[in-house]
Amino acid sequence: MKKHLFPLFLLLIGANVSAQQDFFALVGKDTPNIVFNDFRAIDGTSGISGEQIFAETSSARVFSQGRNGVITEDKNSYHNSQAVSMATLAYDSFNNNLVYMPMYSSNIYVLNTKTKEITLVENNVTRVTSCDINSHMTRMSTGYDGNIYAINNAGTQFLQISRRGNQYVVNDLGIIKDDASNGKNSFTMLETGFGGDMIADADNNFYVFSASGNVFKVSTQELTAKFVGKISGIPENYSVNGAAVNSQGKVVVASAKGAAFYEVDLKSLQAKQMAGEQNLHIYDLASKYFANDRMASGNMLANLDIYPTRVDEQYINVNVNDKSVKGTLTMTIFDLSGKNVMKQNLSVKDGSLNQQVYFKNLVSGAYLVNITDESGKVLLNKKILVTE
């Protein structure tokens, strides 16, 4: 299920273990209803299941942020870290944490994927009740700004979960309403807009995939959800319950009903079935990638680009595939005050270059990457965000 609920851009560096570990799934048991089984790694380009990170049978050590100490939870309640009903998951790559919420609870949990320790973030901002399907939190994703965002079924709460020092802070950003053009494809209606999952793009907007296969673009500035289309190429009864962007910039969707993964082109919304797992019950997906990452503004030359634009591994890739580009390029990085903080030459051979450039002691923050040719002509200006 989520039948009871109603139930971006990087090039492929390689389908290796590292890639597998930054694509995560919230997996359920083989039952008609939501029953939590485990969090696990998934290879987002092949659909192959990997390491089981934390399960409903795992020993849980829960630290309460509010009470500043380790607590014992009631495993028979909806309010615990291994609750039966869960449908939200996001990956905080800054801290290598999984963030999730039980569906019938306002509790937020932060699972360290290495130590397996869990932090409980109690909050009085989220208004969730077990009997109100509209209030259930069913969509969650990391935003391009590094914060975690979650939306309830009806769009009446749009949460931002941010970290300030060692504390997590929850803010309600407001009510998301239907764009005037949506018509019968309403974001706030059970049959057309509930359930599913969401992803972020490089402009810090969000795409919500409803369980019915409808896709809505949510503007964080206007707090509106605009219907952009319905996924084609998936089975008629396919319930879309998980969505995340893989390392090739494709959206991968999965179902809680135990079906195959599908790769979806965000422009055409055309889906094609993936190899790999064919019968996992997926309640949510999460990754560190973003839609349209390489499509961000600032390109002066179509076949020259850098990626990622949110940098959490201390390097960027520079790619050139254009016969008109020759000789030595100069890449200069400026901070937002305009100060030159780094410069490096790049050698293009036969119009081709694919090189990793490592940063030297750049602190967290926003920078402008400028690339010029030998004549001084600007080929690319692009903003990046460096994180520690």
TrEMBL record:
Keywords from the UniProt entry: Signal
Pfam family, one: Por_Secre_tail
Ranges for domain Secretion system C-terminal sorting: 306-384
Signal peptide residues on this chain, from the entry's feature table: 1-19
Family annotation (InterPro entries): Secre_tail, Vgb
UniProt xrefs under SUPFAM superfamilies: NHL repeat (SSF101898)
NCBIfam families in the cross-refs: Por_Secre_tail
PANTHER family associated with the record: VIRGINIAMYCIN B LYASE
Name listed for the protein in its UniProt record: T9SS type A sorting domain-containing protein
Species, as recorded: Chryseobacterium camelliae
